[in-house]
Amino acid sequence: MTDDELISRYVADVIALLPRRQRADVARELRDLLREELTGPDDTRTLLTRFGHPAEVAARYTAPVALIDPADTRRFLLLAGGGALLVHLGGALLSPHDLAAAAEVTWPVVLGWLGVLVAAFAGTAWWRRRHTGPPAWKPRPPLSDRVNRVGRTAAVAVFALGTLILVDPAAVMHALGAAPAPFAYHPDFLLVRGPVLLTLLILGLALQTTLAWTGRWTRPLHLADLIHSLLVCAAMAWAISAGPVFSAAPTDRTTKAAAALIILITLADLAFRARRLSVAHALAS
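Now predict its structure.
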């Protein structure tokens, strides 16, 4: 193959990666540039190797089309990895004694989640390039340690009422005129798991009451809240995987599914709050 044939083949590979409207101009410019470079001591193959792979050269002439914008890559990876982890964790919580069966159910969900993410991020990148251009920075509202005391007190009251209902839901259903049997706790649950969960719920009430009283977040309160949330998630996971919670099977299945969903949402919220606290700490240091 002659020098001109090598250059023509190289130029063809470059312009094949470019939009049609650019190909003729780039082909002329690149061919002339390579011929000028060839006047030196290098042979054609050495020159082309040093000049770069055709894909790299094509990227110099036009912005490469990215399925996911570089600015979104970190967020995409966090959502993809975090979502996959949460889905697998949810499957393990609902089928703790048959992880292989749980994986058969969760893997299609994970792949579907990844597909949704890719489509969403690719669509956002396409829209941004076509209509809005590069993303503009917008300042976020400043972080505040203050707490709405009225709202927090109302939340504590609702939390306390919910805790009272959970102590004996069968009695509450009976008082409301509903059948109490489907809401009776299993005797095994009442031995250890129930009291442990109730203790953690009471500790949570005490923590939220303290927060409503002080009216602001402090670093010890943040740390205590994060640790308490992790303990609650661990205790709930243990409670729903160690045996039945309710004697009635339908109520037990529904409760465990709801508990698994609460655990996953809480873990996602904990990750978000931990990241926010880390950023705030780095700014303060």
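The first helix runs from residue 3 to 15.
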